[in-house]
Each structure stands twice: as structure tokens, then as C-alpha cells.
Design brief:
The protein has 5 domains: about 100 residues, Rossmann fold (3-Layer(aba) Sandwich), CATH 3.40.50.20; about 70 residues, ATP-grasp fold, A domain (Dna Ligase, domain 1), CATH 3.30.1490.20; about 230 residues, ATP-grasp fold, B domain (D-amino Acid Aminotransferase, Chain A, domain 1, 2-Layer Sandwich), CATH 3.30.470.20; about 120 residues, Glycoprotein, Type 4 Pilin (2-Layer Sandwich); about 60 residues, Beta Barrel (OB fold (Dihydrolipoamide Acetyltransferase, E2P)). About 25% of the residues lie in helices and about 30% in strands. The protein has 17 helices and 40 strands. The strands form 11 sheets. Strands 26-27-28-29-30-31-32-33 form an 8-stranded antiparallel beta barrel. α4 packs antiparallel against α5 and α12 runs antiparallel to α13.
């Protein structure tokens, strides 16, 4: 077995590999970019080496540099994780040529499965079922249209070298074929440098089911059952579960055997996933093979009582597979939700910023049961911590939330509860969307297919609604209690409290709160034994029952209420009843003296890149004159002079990456 390995990746997979290696007594070396100097994976490994600037092409994709670091630090093997260089055949072969072990399949297997069309021809020879289609080399538009007409519409055009949902078009009619083909080829050449496409029958309401396979160097190959990954957006997975709902024993065995045949056909070694598209009638067809560990591998671990990373390390060290096919039984049900920094209501645009607060669900540290029967009920795999930044350079995944239950019903209940306990402040996330998805009728009843999200858009993307009185009461009380703590040197001295204490009467103030659902004028009356709250004719007595930091328990009228309130500047994030309300507070004191037309800010409104600098040091400018333009989230933001004045110093130049809130210029008002 190895004594030291290098992990050529970042984020949660690097942390995951490091945890398993540590348990096995193996030391780990992390590599990191300048943007990841303070990252979690750097902290959890035994050693860490800087390999370049933030951009992946200058750091995590520098294969030769990574090999040099491995040799310099005495690592015997390189684990590629997933993404980056994990499916790069040239890198795998370069690792071996350097006298190191690549913890993954041989380069020849990657090449065999790297081209969708070539892989399908290979699978046809291995008796693996294929979707009716054309996967050949003739790319003449008229010929491809003839093939589509023969197959029958709708058909799917797919880039042969593609992945991640790029270079794919559904064509409903023959007369639309040529325009769709041209569009598909343009995207394919732009994304992959290869415009070759294949044409396949497009299945109506298909399911996406994949089989986890594992092979060693002793001729053994097994399948660790299936995962259902049907819930997708733009061909990218959102939820994964194992086993697949409604899977019969015969169908499971047939798919498993087909996956093993596929792996054997390319001389596979290590962990891999064979992906199938499945009809509602039970028929299934080969799609592609991912020649690496998958993001969703934890659900397989949860139901089989295995540690697939440990298996990877053992197989790479030349050991046989730890279990035989007959020993791989299924225990219970597991579901994984991918928690991303993204905004579902804005087309799932990535959200970049700082994790100012991150409360994760109550989780037992993941421990595999002796026979797989007693895994942890809730598991959180994450490569970030509270205070870390989600940068524009890499995938915006925050964490993978995985739950296990004795059956699917229990797993669903645990996932819904765990999502309610996952609280993040500082950037947009998909947590509320995931909760609606999990609790929706389609997913809860296992009415699954790859079009589920699009089909149920009305319920999954509801219009903003007004915040309830309870959420407003939690925000108002949190504000009041925060002022008391901030201003009270002696809590018993009313004169030192910043809460409007009156000797012979009550004090009422009006708080202006706002969210996407509307604006609220919340009346808060301070009494000696509590508060009164009123909103648009609703009035209720409020009593503080208990407080533990940000956690508040209230009695509002006759209703008991519990919630967590996290303040981030002028935003009050209220978590209650399994929902998250983001309420903006208009603090009149904080804005006193501000001019309505104060122009732009002199600090970065969010993390991004400087794309233009229109001012120079020593330049006199007029109010409203543009000084700096930043690009963030594919949009430009202009920072203008708040008044007439002098630019004393320009702190960033074109091309510089800037953190949220960073001062861009030193400015002196006239």
C-alpha cells in the first residue's frame, strides 16, 4: 500500500480523498492555486504546494507541474479526483511514465470511451444495448438528415466529443434538421474543438440510470448496483438516488451485466460509471461511460457499505477487489442533493461571494457499517467552510448533502429536514429550490424522467409571496435585541440601552423591511414585559421565550414560533418553518445625510474582474463621472464618483480580480 499520495484536485473531492487516506494511514499532498491558498483541502492534507495562478489552465490543469510536485514530495501515486485531469489519457500515461501510479483507469480505456461515437461502435460489438441511431464518420448534412428521417422523429443531435449538456439539440421535424445541425456543430467546435455529431432516437420521458462498476488488475469486475440521476436541468444532474425506484431484480441484473461487459470491452481498471438512458417500459440503452469516480458516488457507498475511494487506493496498489458480486447487497435507500452557489430564479446563474454564515444539518460523521446496514443517516461532503469565498474560477458547488433511510420514504423525510437545517448567508443558493423539488409530488411519488424540472416549472419556480407575520416578528425582535446587546454596558440600566426605553409609557417605532414579495411597515411597540407587533391591520403580542445566539423562540399571539436570524449588513436572513426569508432593513440612522444621487460606490459591489479604469491618480473628477467598470456574473457594473473630488490613487488595474467590498480607489471629496 502507498505511504503518500498527491491529490490533483480541490474542493470536496480532495477533502474526501484526504479523509479516506488518513483513515488508511496514508499521508496526502495537496496542490492549490493562488485563489485556493486558504482553502479547506489545503488545511486537511499533510502537505500543500502552490502550483500556479487562479485560472485552472495555469494551475490544476498543469499536468507536468503536478507530476513534478508529486516526485519532489515523495508521493508514490496521484489521485485525480473528478473534473480537471481525471479523464485525460495523456496525463494518466505521463504519470505512469514518470514512475508514479495513476489512481484510475489506463489511458487506453479513457481513449476508448472518450469519443461517444467510437464508444458506441465498441459497445455494439460487446452486446451492450444501443439507442437506435447513427454514430459513423459521414458528417455530410444531407446524409445525416436521411439518417434522422430513417430513425424517426424526434431525434437528438449530440456532439461526439461532448459532455456537460453542451452540443445537444432535440429536433422535432425533418424541416428543422439542418438549422439544428448547424447550431449543434457551432457549439461543438466552440466547446470541444470537434464538430462531429451523432444522431439518435430521442426518447420521450426517459430516465437516466447509471451503473457503478469497479475492476481490478486481477481480472475481477463487479457492479455496485444502480443510481437514478433523472432529475436534471440542462442535462446536468440535480438529485441522485440509489437504488432506482421501481427497479426490478431482473432489470437490475441485466443492466449490471451490460455495464460489466462495457468495462471489460475496454480493459477497464478502477472506478467507473456506465450511463444508460431508460424507457418507462423498462428497456435501456448505453449512453456513455465516465472513466472516473462520479460526484454522486456517496449514494452507492451508503447502500452498499463500501468506501469507493478506499477501493480505488487498494486496486491502484495492485490488490484485488475487497468484495465479490455476491457480497454486494443493497441496504436501504440513499439520496444526494447538490448544494450550489447559484440562483435558480435567474436561470441558475452562479453566485459568487463569501459564505458569511454556514450552518450545516446535524450530521453524524460518515462511518460505513460493518455490513452496510448501519450507515450514517445524514452526511455532508464539503470543500468549504464558513468564511470561505466561492470564486468565479471553479465550480460553485458548496456541498453534497446525502441522506440514508431504511426505505425511500424515510430518506425523503430526512432530506427535507436536512435541507431545512442547511442555512447559508452571503450568496444565493439553490437550497429552497431543492426543498421544493424534494417535497413536490413528482419526485416524492417517483414519477421520474429527465424533463421533470421543466414540466413542473410553475411549482418549482413560484412567484415571490409576502413574508408572513412570524418571519417579520423574528426579524424585528432580532433587531431590537441586537440593539440592546450593542448599547447596554449594564443590561439592568435602562439609560444605557439603545431600545427607546420610556419611564411612564410605551415606545412605538416603525421598521421598514422589504423583500422580493413586497415592502412592510412593521410597527413595534416596546412594553415592560414584551412587545406588540402590528402590520397592515394585524396586531399581536410578542413574547421572547428563549434565545441562544441567533436562535430565537417566540410566542406571537397564541402561536409558538422558532427560528434563526442571521444579520448581514442591512439584510436580515430569517430561517423558520423550513423556509428562508431575506429581508432588507432600511435603517434611517445609517443613511442619514446620504444624498439621493450619490453615484456609484468606491468599493466592489461583488467579486469580479476590473475591465476598465477611466481615472488616474491625481485626476480631478466631477460627481457621477465613471471611474472603474467591473465585470461580475457576466454583467458590467460602473463605479462612479460620489461627488466632485480628487482620485488620490487607483488600487486595481484592468484584468485584476477583486474581492467583494474591496476599495477600488482612494478618493478625496472636494
Amino acid at each position: 500500500m502507498f505511504t503518500k499520495i498527491l491529490i490533483a484536485n480541490r474542493g470536496e473531492i480532495a477533502c474526501r480523498v484526504a479523509a479516506t487516506a488518513r483513515r488508511m494511514g496514508i499521508r496526502t499532498v495537496a496542490v492549490y492555486s493562488e485563489a485556493d491558498a486558504g482553502a479547506k483541502h489545503v488545511a486537511v492534507c499533510d502537505e500543500a504546494v502552490l502550483i500556479g495562478p487562479a485560472a485552472a489552465k495555469d494551475s490544476y490543469l498543469r499536468g507536468q507541474k503536478i507530476i513534478e510536485v508529486a516526485k519532489a514530495t515523495g508521493a508514490q501515486a496521484i489521485h485525480p479526483g473528478y473534473g480537471f485531469l481525471s479523464e485525460n489519457a495523456e496525463f494518466a500515461e505521463a504519470v505512469q511514465a514518470a514512475g508514479l501510479v495513476f489512481i484510475g483507469p489506463p489511458g487506453s480505456s479513457m481513449r476508448a470511451m472518450g469519443s461517444k461515437s467510437a464508444a458506441k461502435q465498441l459497445m455494439e460489438g460487446a452486446n451492450v444495448p444501443l439507442v437506435p441511431g447513427y454514430h459513423g464518420d459521414n458528417q455530410e448534412p444531407g446524409f445525416l438528415r436521411e439518417q434522422a428521417d430513417r430513425i424517426g422523429y424526434p431525434v437528438l443531435l449530440k456532439a461526439s466529443a461532448g459532455g456537460g449538456g453542451k452540443g445537444m439539440r432535440v429536433v422535432e421535424r425533418s424541416e428543422d434538421f439542418e438549422a439544428a445541425l448547424a447550431s449543434c456543430k457551432r457549439e461543438a467546435i466552440s466547446s470541444f474543438g470537434d464538430d462531429k455529431v451523432l444522431v439518435e432516437k430521442y426518447l420521450i420521458r426517459p430516465r437516466h440510470i447509471e451503473i457503478q462498476v469497479f475492476a481490478d488488475t486481477h481480472g475481477n469486475c463487479v457492479y455496485l448496483h444502480e443510481r437514478d440521476c433523472s432529475v436534471q436541468r440542462r442535462h446536468q444532474k440535480v438529485l441522485e438516488e440509489a437504488p432506482a425506484p421501481g427497479m426490478s431484480l431482473d432489470r437490475r441484473a441485466a443492466m449490471g451485466e451490460a455495464a460489466v461487459n462495457a468495462a471489460r470491452a475496454v480493459g477497464y481498471v478502477g472506478a467507473g460509471t456506465v450511463e444508460f438512458i431508460a424507457n418507462q417500459d423498462g428497456s435501456f440503452y448505453f449512453m456513455e461511460m465516465n472513466t472516473r469516480l462520479q460526484v454522486e458516488h456517496p449514494v452507492t457507498e451508503m447502500i452498499t457499505g463500501t468506501d469507493l475511494v478506499e477501493w480505488q487506493l487498494r486496486v491502484a496498489a495492485g490488490q484485488p477487489l475487497p468484495k465479490k458480486q455476491s457480497e454486494l447487497a443493497i441496504h436501504g435507500h440513499a439520496i444526494e442533493a447538490r448544494v450550489y452557489a447559484e440562483n435558480p430564479e435567474k436561470g441558475f446563474l452562479p453566485s459568487i461571494g463569501t459564505l458569511r454564515h454556514m450552518d450545516t444539518p446535524r450530521a453524524v460523521e460518515f462511518e460505513l457499517g460493518a455490513d452496510g446496514a448501519n450507515p450514517a443517516a445524514v452526511r455532508v461532503d464539503s470543500g468549504v467552510r464558513e468564511g470561505d469565498a466561492i470564486s468565479p474560477f471553479y465550480d460553485p458547488m458548496i456541498a453534497k448533502l446525502i441522506v440514508w433511510g431504511a426505505d425511500r420514504t424515510q430518506a425523503l423525510a430526512r432530506l427535507s429536514q436536512a435541507l431545512a437545517e442547511f442555512r447559508i448567508v452571503g450568496l444565493a443558493t439553490n437550497i429552497a429550490f431543492l426543498k421544493r423539488l424534494v417535497e413536490g409530488e413528482a419526485f416524492s411519488t417517483a414519477d421520474l424522467d429527465t424533463g421533470l424540472i421543466d414540466r413542473h416549472g410553475a411549482s418549482l419556480f413560484p412567484a415571490p409571496s409576502a413574508a408572513p407575520l412570524g418571519a417579520l416578528a423574528l426579524a424585528a425582535l432580532s433587531l431590537s435585541l441586537g440593539e440592546t446587546r450593542r448599547g447596554a454596558a449594564n443590561p439592568a440600566d435602562p439609560w444605557s440601552q439603545a431600545r427607546g426605553w420610556r419611564m411612564n409609557g410605551d415606545y412605538r417605532r416603525v421598521l421598514s423591511l422589504q423583500d422580493e414579495g413586497g415592502s412592510y411597515q412593521v410597527g413595534l411597540t416596546y412594553r415592560h414585559d414584551g412587545w406588540d407587533i402590528d402590520l397592515g391591520g394585524q396586531r399581536a403580542r410578542v413574547e421572547l421565550v428563549a434565545q441562544d445566539g441567533a436562535e430565537l423562540s417566540l410566542r406571537v399571539g397564541e402561536t409558538s414560533l422558532h427560528g434563526c436570524v442571521r444579520r448581514d449588513g442591512e439584510l436580515f436572513h430569517v430561517f423558520t418553518g423550513g423556509r428562508h426569508y431575506s429581508l432588507s432593513y432600511n435603517d434611517p440612522m445609517a443613511h442619514a445625510g446620504e444624498h439621493e444621487a450619490a453615484g456609484g460606490r468606491l468599493t466592489a459591489p461583488m467579486p469580479g474582474k476590473v475591465v476598465a479604469v477611466m481615472a488616474s491618480s491625481g485626476q480631478e473628477v466631477k460627481k457621477g463621472e465613471p471611474l472603474v467598470i467591473m465585470e461580475a456574473m457576466k454583467m458590467e457594473h460602473t463605479i462612479s464618483a460620489p461627488s466632485d473630488g480628487l482620485v488620490e490613487e487607483v488600487l486595481y488595474q484592468v484584468g485584476d480580480q477583486v474581492a467583494d467590498g474591496a476599495p477600488l480607489l482612494a478618493f478625496k471629496a472636494a
